[in-house]
Design brief:
The chain is of the alpha/beta class. It is built from 14 helices and 12 strands. The structure holds beta-D-ribofuranose (BDR) and calcium ion. Calcium ion (CA) binds next to loops.
């Protein structure tokens, strides 16, 4: 079994938190650091949530502050789904020994890539502002990474608008810079993530184990569950666990190579990840592996085992 050095950039976020719990538990992942960006909640809250998660896990993953706003747009948050604090407004303290680092997200990410040239897997679970900032400041960074796995976009449809997925819509200019950077991207978009549903019986099973981790998962998804039911979903989509589990268990997924470009100008389709998957006209370059489907039952089984092992 291979173990990969991994960096996670995220906007923690209910499903970001569960994805980090999975990354912590999976033996294929050696998590080197966590950088936080604004998105699901303000930068202040996502940074605080990373520390709260360290407290829950009993870990001291280094946590770094990133962007407080998108590159050139107003900040958009998602309290309707993630609660006001980003973690479903559950009671989870910041540990008293939390370490507040002064190094920025982009500098810390670059340092990790330099230490692990062509080996580091960068997992991005929020808007791509920190990554675009890092790529602009360090033009050699895309070439130092092994690959990027992102939760973002969709070959078909959207969530925050009919055409766009939240992470890409929040900062389309950042996404364009990242998709055009030359790094190979494994794109877990809504095509696959909306199939990765954690259902009430699953979180009841986790809570029944009596662990802090199991109860946390049940409690933090409740706000998202209220919202998800309005759309007829039978559970809460584990969007951000998809790239994490893809890295460890690619055999669970179906994916195709594609060219992907980002719409940054149109108002109607702003933030759309335009793919050439279903088109006669093909883009010049296949810059992404677009993940389209997952074996939901095996995915959730592995995810639950991760949470149970904490
Ligand atoms: C994505 O947006 C956020 O709300 C989730 O954390 C996920 O990364 C889904 O569109
Ligand atoms: Ca996220």
């Amino acid at each position: 079994m291979n173990t990969y050095p991994v960096w996670i950039d995220c906007d923690i976020g209910v499903d970001d938190a569960i994805a980090i719990m999975a990354a912590h538990a999976l033996p294929q992942i050696d998590l080197l650091g966590i950088s936080t960006t604004c998105g699901n909640a303000s930068q202040e809250n996502t940074y605080r949530n990373a520390h709260r998660l360290n407290g829950l896990l009993g870990t001291d993953y280094p946590v770094y502050r990133g962007a407080v706003s998108p590159l050139c747009r107003e900040l958009l948050t998602a309290s309707h789904f993630h609660g006001n604090d980003g973690l479903g407004d559950v009671d989870l303290p910041v540990p008293p020994d939390a370490v507040y680092r002064v190094e920025t997200a982009w500098d810390a990410l670059y340092d990790a890539a330099v230490k692990h040239p062509h080996e580091l897997r960068l997992i991005a679970l929020g808007p791509l502002t920190n990554i675009a900032t890092a790529f602009s400041k360090y033009p050699d960074l895309p070439g130092l990474l092994h690959s990027m796995l992102i939760m973002g976009g969709a070959a078909v449809g959207g969530n925050i608008t009919p055409a766009a997925e939240f992470n890409i819509y929040c900062d389309p200019e950042a996404a364009e810079l990242v998709f055009d950077s030359g790094v190979h991207i494994i794109m877990c978009g809504l095509d696959v993530t909306l199939k990765a549903l954690l259902r009430p019986a699953d979180w009841d099973e986790l809570a029944a184990t009596g662990t802090k981790a199991g109860k946390f998962v049940r409690d933090c998804v409740q706000c998202a569950w209220q919202f998800s039911q309005k759309f007829g979903l039978s559970g809460v989509a584990m969007h951000d666990s998809c790239p994490v589990l893809y890295l460890a268990h690619p055999e669970l997924f179906r994916a195709e190579e594609a060219g992907v470009k980002i719409e940054t100008r149109s108002t109607l389709t702003l933030g759309k990840t335009v793919t050439d998957l279903y088109s006669d006209k093909q883009f010049d370059e296949k810059n992404a592996t677009v993940v389209l489907d997952v074996d939901r039952d095996r995915f959730i089984e592995i995810l639950k085992n991760c949470i149970k092992s904490i």
